[in-house]
Design a protein that fits this description.
This is protein-glutamate methylesterase. It is an enzyme of class 3 (hydrolase). Keywords: Chemotaxis, Hydrolase. This protein is an alpha/beta fold. It has a single domain, classed as Methylesterase CheB, C-terminal domain (Rossmann fold). Helix content is 28%, strand content 21%. The chain has six helices and nine strands. The strands form two sheets. Strands 3-4-2-1-7-8-9 form a seven-stranded parallel β-sheet, sandwiched between helices.
C-alpha cells in the first residue's frame, strides 16, 4: 500500500513529468510530491504547466500545510522540503546539499521516517547524484524505489547514481511510469 509518492529530478525531468501526469487516475488515494532542482524566485509557471497536464490538483507546498491525497505538490525553490509526523510539510532554509536546495536526499530521508514502507520514491533525469543516498535510506525503511532508465534520461547521472547504490531498485521506462503509479493506487504489486 502506498501513502505517498515522491519524485525527484533535475535537468531533463520536466519532460518525463509531462508524460506521466496525463496518464494518472484522478483518485489515487495518496499525494504525489515533486522535488525538482529549480532556480530561486517566485513564479507559478511550473505549477501552471503541470496543472495543464493532469486532473489532479497541483500546487506549490506551503509551510505547515496538511498533506492531502490526490494532490500533486511541488517543492518550492530555495527550501529543503521536510515531512512532519502529523503529515504536514516543513520548509527549511539550511545550507545546500549536493549544491541544491531543495535537496532530493533530504526529502527522501525525511519522508522515509514518516511513511516507512508506505512510501515510493522515483528518481528521474538529472545532472548530479542528489537523491541516491536518500533512496538508500528510504529503501532501508521499506520504501519502494524506482529509477528512470538512464538510457532514456536527458542527463543520466541522477538515475544512474541511484541504480549503482540502491539494492532492489526498479528501473522504469518513462512510458510505463503512470501505469505503475496507478497500480500503486489500486494496491497492486508492481513487479
Amino acid at each position: 500500500m502506498c501513502k505517498a509518492l515522491l519524485i525527484g529530478g533535475s535537468a531533463g525531468s520536466l519532460n518525463v513529468l509531462l508524460k506521466i501526469l496525463p496518464g494518472l487516475n484522478k483518485e489515487l488515494g495518496f499525494p504525489i510530491i515533486i522535488v525538482l532542482h529549480r532556480k530561486p524566485g517566485k513564479d507559478s509557471i511550473l505549477t501552471d504547466i503541470l496543472s495543464s497536464k493532469t486532473l489532479l490538483h497541483v500546487k506549490e507546498v506551503e509551510e505547515k500545510e496538511v498533506i492531502k491525497n490526490d494532490t500533486v505538490y511541488i517543492a518550492p525553490p530555495n527550501y529543503h522540503l521536510l515531512f512532519e509526523e502529523n503529515y504536514t510539510f516543513a520548509l527549511d532554509a539550511s545550507e545546500k546539499i549536493n549544491f541544491s536546495r531543495p535537496s532530493i536526499d533530504v526529502s527522501f530521508e525525511s519522508a522515509a521516517e514518516v511513511y516507512n514502507d508506505k512510501l515510493t520514491c522515483l528518481i528521474l533525469s538529472g545532472a548530479n547524484a542528489d537523491g541516491a543516498r536518500g533512496m538508500v535510506y528510504a529503501a532501508e525503511h521499506g520504501a519502494q524505489t524506482w529509477a528512470q532508465d538512464p538510457a532514456t534520461a536527458v542527463v543520466s547521472v541522477m538515475p544512474q547514481s541511484a541504480i549503482e547504490i540502491v539494492k532492489n531498485i526498479k528501473i522504469v521506462q518513462p512510458e510505463e511510469i503512470s501505469l505503475l503509479i496507478n497500480a500503486l493506487a489500486s494496491n497492486l504489486e508492481s513487479s
